[in-house]
Protein backbone atom coordinates (compact mmCIF):
# COMPACT_ATOMS: atom_id res chain seq x y z
CA UNK A 1 0.00 0.00 0.00
CA UNK A 2 1.42 3.38 -0.91
CA UNK A 3 1.25 6.40 1.41
CA UNK A 4 -1.49 8.16 -0.58
CA UNK A 5 -3.75 5.10 -0.22
CA UNK A 6 -2.79 4.79 3.43
CA UNK A 7 -3.68 8.43 4.11
CA UNK A 8 -7.06 7.99 2.40
CA UNK A 9 -7.76 4.87 4.48
CA UNK A 10 -6.81 6.65 7.72
CA UNK A 11 -9.16 9.55 6.91
CA UNK A 12 -11.93 7.10 5.96
CA UNK A 13 -11.44 5.10 9.17
CA UNK A 14 -11.49 8.24 11.31
CA UNK A 15 -14.72 9.25 9.55
CA UNK A 16 -16.31 5.92 10.49
CA UNK A 17 -15.00 6.26 14.06
CA UNK A 18 -16.45 9.78 14.21
CA UNK A 19 -19.89 8.53 13.12
CA UNK A 20 -19.81 5.83 15.80
CA UNK A 21 -18.73 8.35 18.45
CA UNK A 22 -21.49 10.76 17.40
CA UNK A 23 -24.14 8.06 17.78
CA UNK A 24 -22.73 7.07 21.17
CA UNK A 25 -22.67 10.69 22.33
CA UNK A 26 -26.26 11.20 21.19
CA UNK A 27 -27.39 8.05 23.00
CA UNK A 28 -25.59 9.11 26.19
CA UNK A 29 -27.08 12.61 25.95
CA UNK A 30 -30.58 11.20 25.55
CA UNK A 31 -30.04 8.96 28.58
CA UNK A 32 -28.74 11.89 30.63
CA UNK A 33 -31.72 14.07 29.80
CA UNK A 34 -34.45 11.43 29.88
CA UNK A 35 -37.26 12.19 32.30
CA UNK A 36 -37.14 8.72 33.84
CA UNK A 37 -33.51 9.32 34.84
CA UNK A 38 -34.22 12.36 36.99
CA UNK A 39 -32.85 11.69 40.46
CA UNK A 40 -35.47 10.85 43.07
CA UNK A 41 -32.99 11.10 45.94
CA UNK A 42 -29.31 11.81 46.55
CA UNK A 43 -28.41 8.14 45.95
CA UNK A 44 -30.07 7.97 42.56
CA UNK A 45 -27.13 8.76 40.27
CA UNK A 46 -28.18 7.22 36.95
CA UNK A 47 -28.76 10.62 35.32
CA UNK A 48 -25.48 11.97 36.68
CA UNK A 49 -23.56 8.94 35.43
CA UNK A 50 -25.18 9.28 32.02
CA UNK A 51 -24.16 12.96 31.85
CA UNK A 52 -20.54 12.03 32.66
CA UNK A 53 -20.69 9.46 29.88
CA UNK A 54 -22.16 12.01 27.47
CA UNK A 55 -19.37 14.47 28.32
CA UNK A 56 -16.71 11.82 27.75
CA UNK A 57 -18.27 10.80 24.44
CA UNK A 58 -18.36 14.44 23.31
CA UNK A 59 -14.66 14.82 24.16
CA UNK A 60 -13.81 11.62 22.28
CA UNK A 61 -15.81 12.85 19.29
CA UNK A 62 -13.85 16.11 19.28
CA UNK A 63 -10.52 14.24 19.48
CA UNK A 64 -11.46 12.14 16.47
CA UNK A 65 -12.65 15.22 14.57
CA UNK A 66 -9.33 16.99 15.26
CA UNK A 67 -7.33 13.91 14.23
CA UNK A 68 -9.29 13.63 10.99
CA UNK A 69 -8.72 17.30 10.24
CA UNK A 70 -4.98 16.89 10.91
CA UNK A 71 -4.83 14.05 8.38
CA UNK A 72 -6.90 15.96 5.84
CA UNK A 73 -4.33 18.78 6.06
CA UNK A 74 -1.27 16.49 6.16
CA UNK A 75 1.24 16.92 3.36
CA UNK A 76 2.89 13.61 2.54
CA UNK A 77 6.67 13.88 2.29
CA UNK A 78 9.05 11.43 0.70
CA UNK A 79 11.88 10.14 2.84
CA UNK A 80 14.82 12.54 2.76
CA UNK A 81 18.14 10.88 3.72
CA UNK A 82 19.46 14.32 4.68
CA UNK A 83 16.73 14.90 7.27
CA UNK A 84 16.03 11.31 8.32
CA UNK A 85 12.64 10.06 9.46
CA UNK A 86 10.00 12.80 9.61
CA UNK A 87 6.25 13.14 10.01
CA UNK A 88 4.35 11.24 7.26
CA UNK A 89 7.10 8.66 6.72
CA UNK A 90 6.23 4.99 6.50
CA UNK A 91 8.89 2.93 8.28
CA UNK A 92 9.62 -0.78 8.07
CA UNK A 93 11.23 -2.00 11.31
CA UNK A 94 12.82 -5.34 12.14
CA UNK A 95 13.48 -6.52 15.70
CA UNK A 96 16.34 -8.74 16.87
CA UNK A 97 14.39 -11.88 15.84
CA UNK A 98 13.89 -10.33 12.37
CA UNK A 99 10.14 -9.88 12.95
CA UNK A 100 9.03 -6.96 10.84
CA UNK A 101 6.42 -4.31 11.44
CA UNK A 102 5.36 -1.21 9.55
CA UNK A 103 4.62 2.05 11.30
CA UNK A 104 3.33 5.32 9.89
CA UNK A 105 4.46 8.47 11.66
CA UNK A 106 1.31 10.59 11.77
CA UNK A 107 0.18 13.71 13.63
CA UNK A 108 -2.62 12.01 15.61
CA UNK A 109 -4.58 8.76 16.07
CA UNK A 110 -1.78 6.74 17.66
CA UNK A 111 -2.52 3.04 17.79
CA UNK A 112 -4.81 3.05 14.76
CA UNK A 113 -4.19 -0.07 12.68
CA UNK A 114 -4.77 -0.14 8.94
CA UNK A 115 -4.65 -3.32 6.88
CA UNK A 116 -4.04 -6.84 8.11
CA UNK A 117 -1.48 -9.63 8.07
CA UNK A 118 1.79 -8.68 6.42
CA UNK A 119 0.21 -5.42 5.20
CA UNK A 120 -0.70 -4.24 8.74
CA UNK A 121 0.42 -0.67 9.42
CA UNK A 122 0.26 0.89 12.87
CA UNK A 123 -0.03 4.65 13.24
CA UNK A 124 2.33 6.21 15.79
CA UNK A 125 3.01 9.85 16.64
CA UNK A 126 6.22 11.74 17.38
CA UNK A 127 5.00 11.99 21.00
CA UNK A 128 5.28 8.22 21.54
CA UNK A 129 8.55 6.69 22.76
CA UNK A 130 9.04 4.89 19.44
CA UNK A 131 8.09 7.98 17.45
CA UNK A 132 10.55 10.11 19.41
CA UNK A 133 13.29 7.56 18.83
CA UNK A 134 12.61 7.37 15.10
CA UNK A 135 12.68 11.09 14.38
CA UNK A 136 15.77 11.97 12.37
CA UNK A 137 17.02 8.38 12.06
CA UNK A 138 18.26 7.00 8.73
CA UNK A 139 17.68 3.72 6.93
CA UNK A 140 19.94 1.09 8.50
CA UNK A 141 20.07 2.85 11.89
CA UNK A 142 19.16 1.04 15.08
CA UNK A 143 16.62 2.32 17.56
CA UNK A 144 16.80 1.17 21.17
CA UNK A 145 13.71 1.53 23.35
CA UNK A 146 13.93 1.08 27.09
CA UNK A 147 10.43 0.65 28.50
CA UNK A 148 10.31 -0.28 32.16
CA UNK A 149 12.68 -3.20 32.63
CA UNK A 150 12.48 -4.21 28.97
CA UNK A 151 14.76 -3.26 26.14
CA UNK A 152 13.75 -3.44 22.49
CA UNK A 153 16.08 -2.97 19.54
CA UNK A 154 14.82 -2.26 16.03
CA UNK A 155 16.59 -1.72 12.73
CA UNK A 156 15.16 0.73 10.23
CA UNK A 157 14.96 -1.53 7.19
CA UNK A 158 13.18 0.88 4.85
CA UNK A 159 11.69 4.36 5.03
CA UNK A 160 9.22 5.77 2.49
Automatic annotation (TrEMBL):
Species per Swiss-Prot/TrEMBL record: Pseudomonas putida (Arthrobacter siderocapsulatus)
Claim: Protein biosynthesis is one of the keywords in the record: yes
Protein name (database record): GreA/GreB family elongation factor
Gene Ontology BP term (one): regulation of DNA-templated transcription elongation
Any GO MF annotation of the entry: DNA binding
Keyword Protein biosynthesis applies: yes
Residue ranges of domain Transcription elongation factor GreA/GreB C-terminal in the record: 106-159
Keywords, alphabetical: Elongation factor, Protein biosynthesis
